[in-house]
TrEMBL record:
A single MF term (Gene Ontology): ATP binding
UniProt superkingdom: Bacteria
One Pfam family it belongs to: BCA_ABC_TP_C
GO-annotated cellular components: plasma membrane
Name of the protein this chain belongs to: Amino acid/amide ABC transporter ATP-binding protein 1, HAAT family
Gene3D superfamilies per the UniProt record, alphabetical: P-loop containing nucleotide triphosphate hydrolases
Entry keywords, A to Z: ATP-binding, Nucleotide-binding, Transport
ABC transporter domain: residues covered: 2-250
Record keyword Signal present: no
Amino acid sequence: MIVVENLVKTFGGFHAVDGASLTIREGSITGLIGPNGAGKTTLFNVIAGVLQPTSGRVTMQGQDITGLPPHDLFHRGLLRTFQIAHEFPSMTCRENLMMVPAGQTGETLWNTWFGRKRIANEERALRAKADEVLDFLTVSHLADHKAGQISGGQKKLLELGRTMMVDARIVFLDEVGAGVNRTLLNTIGDAILRLNQERGYTFVVIEHDMDFIERLCDPVICMAEGRVLAEGTLAEIKANEQVIEAYLGTGLKNKDQVATA
């Protein structure tokens, strides 16, 4: 679905992404792991149009999307979330979801005067859709809560909900588990699996929680120093000597040994 070829992103003389190549299979939940500074988030930002690549190519279902801005990719069904949730804090959770679809009738001054009935009908449909999304995510009790007052984990669920308000095809999740308690992380994991299995979403997940990665992701891609080191199941990644070296002896294999000691 997504093919990345020899992607490079430099900042001055620093190569944040250094010739990375990978393929994201349609219908998969692909995990992206690696040490801090490996280039994972920069790779996401380049694919999602937040940053322009220095060189290289990105295609989506055979079409070149290299360097396209986020709003163009949004209309193609490519969305990304951020490590720190971006919500409208003074609006309710329901209103945050209703804001997502582009091209709403009420966005133009002319229509606010002469298209009131159409706007009202559209808002009723959006409200129903938002309530359906909140129910799917098991947070319908938060519908009328201000988004700025809910917990960090609930904000992550709300971000996931935004992807459901449009025809998302592939979603890039950046550290969805950061600062989230285990109960809510399980809820987020359940929602991702259901979206993948029931609605055909493709996901790419940056995450440091290996239990979360193991539960959801196949394949898993490991990056270090801006390059792709290895790809396979999590078990194969854990046994890969290059991966172990990239984690400087304190990586996945050693963590497993400590856990079983």
